[in-house]
Amino acid sequence: SIAQVNLGLAYYFSNLPSEAITYLLEAESKFAQFHDKLQLARIYTNLGLAYMMNGSNEKASSAFEHSIQAYHELGQTSLVINAMDGLAASYIAQKQYQSATEVINKAMSLLPQIVSEPNYSYLEHSLNTHLQQTQNEQSFVFVAKANIS
User: Fold this and answer.
1) Are 71 and 79 in contact (CB under 8 A)?
2) How many Å is the maximal CA-CA distance in the chain?
3) Would the N or C end of the chain have less CB density within 10 A of its end CB?
4) Which of 54, 136, 41 is CA-nearest to residue 92?
């Protein structure tokens, strides 16, 4: 199962998301049999990324939601925030800016808990970038609607 995960990641990093998804789903079914929540959480995050690369943003959202839940149950706050960042990105791709903003704000409220974690700076930057993106898109939609009226 670990080899399937690694193959999935190799295909993902080779920009072959369909192949990545195939291997990650195979690994998911195996780890689900053993109730390995940590591996499942990792798989769901990677599935979310592969689904986004594949343009399947609704499936990506679902995968990220599963990852958030599993990491939350494991008490892995920095990885919860990482998966929330992925969920926000999937919402942005679906033009669900309000949902993205809500997820980002919740994730940002958790950041003070992980200041000493190695991925803190990355997550802070990524969340701020996604927040700016949602604000820009919402402003554009508002201006476009105002011009139509």
Assistant:
1) yes
2) 57
3) C
4) 136
List phi, psi (to 5°) of 118: -60, -25
Q: For 142-147, what is the mean pLDDT? A: 46
- 112 and 97 Cβ atoms separated by less than 8 Å: no
Angstrom distance (rounded) from CA 15 to CA 135: 29
Q: What is the pLDDT of residues 22-73, one digit of tens each?
A: 999 999 999 999 999 999 999 999 999 999 999 999 999 999 999 999 999 9
Q: Which residue bears the tokens 């979310």?
A: 48
Looking at residue 11, its pLDDT comes to 98
Mean pLDDT, all residues of the chain: 93
pLDDT band of 136, cuts 50, 70, 90: confident
Q: Which amino acid is at 137?
A: E
Residue 13 has pLDDT above 90, yes or no: yes
Asked whether the beta carbons of 100 and 92 are under 8 A apart, the reply is: yes
Please say whether the beta carbons of 21 and 50 come within 8 A. yes
Residues whose CB is less than 8 angstroms from the CB of residue 103 and which lie 6 or more positions away in sequence, other chains included: 84, 87, 88, 91
Nearest to 52 by CA among 42, 64, 41: 64
